[in-house]
Amino acid sequence: MSIFSPASAMLLRHHNKFNKRRIVFSGHLQDTLSAQLETENSYIHTQQYHQWETLRKIPQTKVYFSLSPISSILDNCDTLIYYWPNNKKKAQFQLQNLLSLLTCGSDIFIVGEYSSGIRSAHGMLENWVNLIKIDSAYRCGLYYGSLAKKSYFNLCEFWHEHLVEGITLKSLPGVFGYNGIDNGTELLLSTFRKDMEGKILDVGCGTGIISAVIANRSPSANITLADINVAALVASKATLLCNNLKGAVLASNIYSKITGCFDMIVANPPFHDGPKVTLDIARTLIKDAPNFLYKGGELRIVANSFLPYHHILNKVFGHHTVIICNKYFKVYSAIKDN
Asked: Do 86 and 170 reside in the same domain of the chain?
């Protein structure tokens, strides 16, 4: 997070505007500008645990990791700088929440790449802020307006749910699986037998679907769910609670807060960073897995067939098995031998 993103480069073109402002930064933060920009006072709200881990290490940085921003902090701010995310529903959720807490008359700056859909910000917020575009560069837009009226925000209206195997899955905007089960996860679930035992770690738990299905089929399994997205953690807890299932849910950047070893690690690792394909998360997931597996423990992941995970698995484990595959996906298994 040391190299500035195009959105942050855009903000730096206007750095003199922010010197005497009390700012809250939020949204799709991708670097450390929010902790480095010269302001009268700055607060940072993030829903991403890895961003919080990075930013909190910078001296005198006030950064908060939570689903909703803290209202008492926003009372001290006169300006919002919001980084537009790739997910429009997530932007709506976050912005309506923020604008319901800021004081009328607060200045609103929204910045983001055109490819992420930032042009829709004007229509989304027109009931509360009249946004105008004040700059365009680096394939990004910078929009500005003054908060004329506080927005309406009700968390309950953003919850989404659907059924899988009779299990109610709860979700919030920005959580993987928000609109339903994906084909890769469905293929992965088909490989889990009933009456599994031991300790299981679900990395990137999303809605909690993998853990919920395992717990429903195998009540004696000891399951830990981890994710970097606080919305996913809240959703997973809600999924377990409404189905009377057990599991420990915690914030962790892959293994950053994981302790001890497990009999199985399961995941449907993401391979996109915006529009770009990246293997970074899967590579770390696989490379460090032996440190968190008992001898004889298994890493089981699903991936798009075109992704070269077999090379990484063979390098780390010395071998792997494809349990099941179809035209689009493969479920890989690798066992720790020693």
From this structure: no
